Amino acid sequence: MHMKRVLIFGCIFGSMLVVLLCLGLTWATFSWEDDFFFLDRNRPYDVSRIFMVALMENRGESAKSMVIPSQWARIDQWANEHQSVTCPVPVGISDEPTWWSTDSKANSDGDVYRLSLLILSLPCPDENQRYRLTIEDISLRQTERGWLIEDWGQITEQR
Questions:
Q1: CA–CA distance from 42 to each of 39, 46, 148 (Å)?
Q2: Domain 44-83+97-159, CATH among 3.10.450.50, 3.40.1080.10, 3.40.50.300, 3.30.310.80
Q3: Ramachandran sector of residue 146 (left: φ over 0; alpha: ψ -120 to 50; beta: rest)
Q4: What value, to the nearest 5°, has the Cα angle with vertex 135 and ends 120 and 150?
Q5: Which residues, listed in sequence order, are joined to residue 155 by a DSSP beta bridge?
Q6: pLDDT tens digit sequence for 100-134
Q7: Which segments within 53-111 are labelled E, that is strand?
Q8: pLDDT of residue 147
Q9: pTM (two decimals)
Q10: Which of 6, 22, 57, 111 registers the highest number of CB atoms within 10 A of its CB?
């Protein structure tokens, strides 16, 4: 009876170890640079906000994953001309960045969404100031991959 318990315990423990090993390998091989893991492509406002953070941090591949391919050259140009911002985007509720948007609207078919203005303002503890990024006239289209940005207007930074 004792040997049977040891055998059962060993099988359970071994199975748990295999599962943890698989999870660890998955975690280690996942590329966080390819895309943001929390992106909900079914919500155009979320796509716009994560796109903005990707531009701020010069994460070109992540930004490209949120726009239509014909706009990829604009992402490359931004990455070549823009200095990455080191202000961390907070994830805690009490230290959330400040987001503003104006005049968001969808067309009658619900497959186009427009934001007249999107602003991100967040503290930069290392620089003892606030960073502000503004993107005008963001246009998104519903695709088979979810919402993708098809165009945007002027981008303004204040450091």
A1: 9, 8, 10
A2: 3.10.450.50
A3: left
A4: 125
A5: 135
A6: 777 677 777 789 999 999 998 888 766 677 889 99
A7: 98-106
A8: 94
A9: 0.70
A10: 57
